[in-house]
Design goal:
By secondary structure, this protein is mainly α. Helix content is about 75%, strand content about 0%. It contains nine helices and no strands. Helix 1 crosses helix 2. About 30% of the residues are buried.
């Protein structure tokens, strides 16, 4: 129980620091200070800071994936509303908290070969979930045919880059969340109708 509490404190501190000042600018000591735990406690849980980033990355990906995988579609739904709802659910964690988008889409890039492997697995997992969501649209009769495979992977890459651009744009200059979702939904609708 004590380890789980410290792990949660370190994850929260990592999200704050990596998501604001950046992973490369953050020291283990800074994470420990922010978490209110000793560096000894840190090293009892993680061999290095990269493992903390990897654990945080996986947890954030799980949060996004649950939004994609939780899509429920019925024959009475409208395709445009279903696509928009799917996007809103999956992007909500990152749009609600820009630190999450920064950790997932900026800070985790190029850290190590292992984290890059994790990123590739995550992209493929997201693409597979999108394929399944598209197949659900077809089964519900909302569209006759939906692309999958490479198209879904390209969508993941495009949405990722859109999120990176959003994170790197000053908040006062960003489009509204609803507009951001609407623009991506319009692209998806052109693909599947």
């Amino acid at each position: 129980m004590r380890d789980e509490t410290r792990r949660r404190q370190l994850m929260d501190a990592a999200l704050e620091l990596y998501g604001t000042i950046g992973y490369r600018a953050t020291t283990v000591q800074a994470v420990c200070k922010s978490a209110g735990v000793s560096s000894r406690s840190f090293y009892e849980l993680y061999p290095d800071q990269e493992m903390l980033l990897t654990e945080l990355y996986r947890a954030l990906n799980d949060e996004v994936l649950s939004g994609i995988s939780g899509a429920k579609v019925s024959a009475t739904d409208e395709l445009a509303a279903s696509v928009r709802a799917l996007l809103a659910r999956s992007l909500e964690p990152m749009l609600r908290d820009g630190r999450k988008a920064r950790v997932l889409e900026v800070e985790s890039v190029g850290v190590s070969a292992e984290l890059e492997r994790q990123r590739r697995i995550a992209y493929r997992t997201f693409a597979d979930a999108i394929d399944e969501a598209f197949a659900a649209f077809v089964r519900a009769g909302l569209t006759n045919e939906a692309p999958g495979g490479l198209t879904s992977l390209i969508l993941v890459g495009g949405i990722t880059e859109a999120l990176v651009q959003r994170v790197q744009t000053p908040e006062s200059e960003r489009s509204e969340r609803e507009s951001f979702i609407d623009e991506i939904a319009a692209v998806i609708l052109r693909l599947i109708t």
